[in-house]
Write a structure and sequence with these properties.
- The chain contains 12 helices and 8 strands.
- By secondary structure, it is α/β, with parallel strands linked by helices.
- The protein has 2 domains: 148 residues, Response regulator (Rossmann fold); 90 residues, Rossmann fold.
- A 5-stranded parallel sheet has the order 2-1-3-4-5, sandwiched between helices.
- Strand 4, helix 6 and strand 5 form a beta-alpha-beta unit.
- The termini are far apart.
- It holds the Pfam family Response_reg.
- One of its GO terms (biological process) is phosphorelay signal transduction system.
- This is Response regulatory domain-containing protein.
- It comes from Ananas comosus var. bracteatus.
């Protein structure tokens, strides 16, 4: 079995920036359309942000996502194919990297996503990954079944540096397979969103008049950049995720920062619409996190 390249060997191939994943749980296009229908049924004019979201989702998400799966293990290949078909994906399978690259280069079949094993019979996965990301805009998810967590982490790091949109351990859980559409949407948004589209989306957000207040209870609230990824996901949910915040009217995001270490019984109160508690550890913050969760439930 060929070894993964070491960090020192990574200069042999061009490096690409890792990509963040969208953190959603339901198809956005259906949610956006449902929101517009609800608005029109209630006699309200469709909100600009909802209209923009519907247009974006219709363009970004194909009706049927076609996945190219590359794996030299026939058992794993068949199992993954069955799982993908069960979730209504179109699937084409290959056992070798050269065969898959030939199909991609011919362009006779339109694919939306590539799933590849780390070790292929005819080439190492990093070489296949580099070819796909250099020649196409297709998102690539790498898979592996490394013997331990350290090897798995090393493989994930190498793959993300070479442009993979994600790395998953085999066998892929059903939840991962169900949410593969997210990678397709992100890649297609990157291709289709020009200056005019970003301007329209930004203006729709700037013109919002109502707001939703979210209390974020955490350990490093004095260093808000520690939660930058969380904040960006929340902001994204307001801008283009109708299922999260549109519900008949779009809202501007407002975050109330609460230090978990400062919470006591009498201070565990907030006027926010919801409470978000990111993961954290330590004797000073866990009691506050528990108080916040208790307050939210009661």
């Amino acid at each position: 079995m060929p070894a993964l390249p070491s960090p020192e060997d990574m200069t042999a191939l061009p490096r690409r920036r890792p990509h963040a994943n969208l953190l959603h749980h339901h198809p956005l296009r259906a949610a956006a359309a449902t929101t517009l229908v609800q608005q029109m049924a209630s006699g309200c004019a469709a909100s600009p942000a909802a209209s923009v979201a519907v247009d974006i989702m219709n363009k970004a998400l194909p009706d049927h996502i076609h996945v190219l799966v590359v794996d030299g293990d026939s058992t794993s290949l068949k199992a993954l194919e069955s799982s993908l078909l069960a979730h209504n994906y179109k699937v084409t399978t290959c056992s070798e990297g050269t065969e898959a690259l030939s199909m991609l280069r011919k362009g006779e079949v339109k694919f939306h996503l590539v799933l590849s094993d780390t070790y292929l019979p005819d080439m190492i996965g990093c070489k296949f990954l580099n070819c796909v990301t250099s020649e196409t805009y297709l998102p690539v998810i790498m898979m592996s079944a490394e013997p331990d967590e350290e090897a798995e982490a090393h493989a994930a790091f190498i793959h993300m540096c070479f442009g993979a949109r994600g790395h998953r351990r085999k066998p892929l859980p059903e939840t991962v397979i169900q949410d593969l559409w997210q990678f397709v949407m992100r890649a297609r948004l990157e291709q289709m969103m020009g200056p005019a589209e970003w301007t329209e989306m930004a203006e729709s957000y700037d013109n919002l008049t109502s707001s939703v207040n979210i209390a974020l209870v955490g350990k490093y609230t004095s260093l808000t950049d520690s939660y930058l990824s969380v904040v960006k996901v929340l902001l994204l949910s307001v801008v283009i995720c109708p299922s999260a915040c549109l519900c008949g009217c779009s809202m501007r995001l407002s975050i109330q920062w609460i230090a978990a270490s400062d919470l006591e019984d009498e201070s565990a109160r907030t006027s926010s619409s919801c409470i978000l508690i990111p993961g954290g550890f330590g004797d000073r913050i866990v009691p506050g996190m528990i108080l916040a969760a208790k307050y939210a439930r009661e």
